[in-house]
Design goal:
about 70 residues; mainly alpha
Amino acid sequence: MSNKLEHKKYEEEYSEDSFWDKVKNFAVTAGEDIVSHALQLYYVAADSKTSRADKLKIYGALGYFISLIDAIQI
């Protein structure tokens, strides 16, 4: 699968509510380093100076973060 398609797949997993739910409920499981990076991405995406293309990539990465935590919890 191309990199572009992978981002698209995980963009659908992302929502602001699901992101914060995962951070609140699984911060200890995910670890400080991963949560720190996820928060950095979240705030870069929220910045009005971040391009739409970059935001979509970030949403894909955050969607992956959310889905990865879902896999761990099973």
